[in-house]
Amino acid sequence: MSNALEQAKDELICAICTEFLDRPRSLVCLHSFCEHCLKHLKRASTAHPGFLVCPECRARTELPSEGVQGLPLNFKLSRLVEILSPAERDSIKRQISKQSSGTDVREKCQHHPDKDLEYFCESCSALVCGQCMLDEHRTHGTVGYAEEFLASRLEDFARLSTLGNSAVANGQRALDSFQAEVDELRRRGQENVDSVRTYFGRLRQLLADREKQLVGRVQREVEEKAEAVARRKQVVQESMENIQKCVHSIQNIIEKRKLDVRILEEKTPLKSTLYSHMEVIEAEASQQERREAPSLAAPVVEDPQFEQFCRIVGEKTSHRNFSSPLPRRPRTSPVSPRRLPLGPTIRIPRSRTDSSDSGGTDFTDPESRTSDLGDSIEVSLDAPPTPPRRRESNKLETEIHQPVLEIGPKNLSGSLFRSLTEEVFPCGVCSGADNTIVVTDVRNHNIRILTTTGKCLEVVGSEGRGDGQFLEPTAAAVDSDGNLIVVDKEAAKVQKFTCSGKFISRFSARSIRGPYLGQPWGVAVCFDGKVLISDWEKSCIHIFDGNGRYQGNFGPRTMETPLKYPAGIAIDRRGRVVVADRGNHCVWIFTPDGQLLGRFGRQGQIPGDLFYPFGVAIDRDENIVVSESGNHRMSVFTFNGTFVRCFGKKGAEPGMFQYPRHICTDHQGRLLVADELNQRVQVFNIS
Fold first, then answer.
1. What are the backbone dihedrals phi and psi of residue 298, each rounded to the nearest 5 degrees, phi first?
2. Which residue from 141, 355, 366, 494 has the highest number of Cβ atoms inside 10 Å of its Cβ?
């Protein structure tokens, strides 16, 4: 037999059936077995469904959708088996059999080397020869032929095997029964879910119809009253025009100083005309001063179906004046109004499209004033943070939203990970150019460029302090040219790359007074090209121009309550800068040049509170989304600080988080969350 066959003879025998390999299939550990043996092994393996455990090295192999037939076929071993001659096959079988069983079945006695061990001493639990049985073992208990003991023990083992197989069969029937029970529960649960959705669909339609009816009634009343005001306005305008004409005529008479009988008369048409129009204006002005604020008739709810719906949801709505303030809800609601003891207040501009109601924030209702960013509202600057409050049993639980995409170890095919053993800790995430996703990996000292489906296109950088290298890249942003701006917390530097990951330049690092940056954690790019960077160590926001030249900073010197560990930064369509403040457990709002507009949030754990906010993003509805590392959830607020909703809780399942870091929205309006300790990026539809 050739040397090649001598070396490969062990590989040609299946370790399961001890026969020559038949259609050998390879596992990830590179061990090969017969295809039919693997099928039997799959049916017998119930501890790891969807996986095969190698009989030799115990490594696990995930089965493809085709099952065992989807595993790779080892053509090399299959060909070697085919080319063996019958004589070579017999020779290999004999050698394998000899290695496994040995040529001499009976062992020799140590005390009498010429005697075989044919007997068994039950008292000593030892094999002995005939001479030993007659000598030292003759006074012991049961001593007999070993073959007889073996046959008896084999019968016992056979009975035990039968009992074990029977127990396994009973267990399998129980498992099948459990699965059938779960399937039935899910079927009935789906029926209940469909019933609930149908029921609330009817309720939503009822509300929509009623809303349309009431809105139409209010709009008609508004138009009628607006027309009446317009008519009064027109009367005043005409009187003003006539008075101006009279005044103009009087000025001409004064200038000419011509002696005329019409002037000498006490009562002239000019005077009477002037006085009559003055009386009209005075009357309208006096009436307008005494007039109260405009009011509308209250819509009366008199639809029996709507009354029935309101009774279901627990609201008393008969003859309700919808223009009056609604009663305060109990504190069990996550959006109930909360008022903290307020100190000095400032005014912040508010969008004209924002609601004037503010529940669950530190905002108050001020008088409006004109601003380039909208109306103004007053905001508390020094409401002190309170200790975290544990959620009571009657508090509403946060929702769990299922992500549309989970980029992590469960999605190894085209993901952040390049192997099962690789660990990735995403901290920063942003939407890159050409519909890509950029993720910063603080563990592996690099950034990763992905497609919108999670496929890894490029891994950029390595560990180090040089150009294009990182120590702990914490955040990234994209400028108007599609270039990447990456901040490195540990190296205290900012670098610029092309959209494909090629190094371009490094931002200015220090001046004659010392380094600009301490510990940069967040980055955002303004519409005018300025780059804003949050700094934990210096507790401020640094400003760089698009070429990386330092422009200054804002934060501590201009605020009564300074920033404390600022992290995530986001910029809305109007240029307002939103900053997550981990130390103060709040969110700050600035103008692009650093003028403070206001803040909202306080420390706590119930919905509407904030606990170590880290990342911020702006959704398509111009709401502020905040990732809370302390509460392991996402919270949504309007720009005036009104709490909208929250979702997520601590866990590793889809829709749950473990200390979420930076967040952003992509070109499709989806929310991207860097879920660091779960080693994944989750993508949600939040529109």
1. -75, 130
2. 494
CA distance 431 to 681: 12
Q: Where residue 8 falls among pLDDT bands split at 50, 70, 90?
A: low
| Residue 376 pLDDT grade (very low, low, confident, very high; cuts 50, 70, 90) | very low
| Exposure class string for 416-455: b at 16+ Cβ within 10 A, else e | bbeeeeeebbbbbbbbbbeebbbbbbbebbbbbbbebebb
**Distance (Å, whole) CA 257 – CA 236:** 32
* CA–CA gap between residue 588 and residue 371 (Å, rounded): 19
- Distance of alpha carbon 294 from the chain centroid: 46
Closest CA to 471 of 442, 447, 496, 497: 442
In sequence order, the 6+-apart residues with CB closer than 8 A to the CB of 408 are 415, 416, 417, 424, 675, 678, 679, 680, 681
585 contacts 680 by C-beta, under 8 angstroms: no
Task: Flag whether pLDDT at 348 surpasses 50.
Answer: no
Alpha carbon distance 447, 409 (integer Å): 17
State how far the Cα of 133 lies from the Cα of 138, in Å rounded to an integer.
Answer: 5
List of residues 6+ apart from 74 with CB closer than 8 A: 21, 24, 25, 26, 32
Beta-bridged to residue 430, according to DSSP, are: 438
Distances (CA, A) of 31 to 19, 26, 394: 15, 6, 57
| Run of H or E residues at 89 | helix 86-101
Residue percentage of the chain with pLDDT more than 70: 73
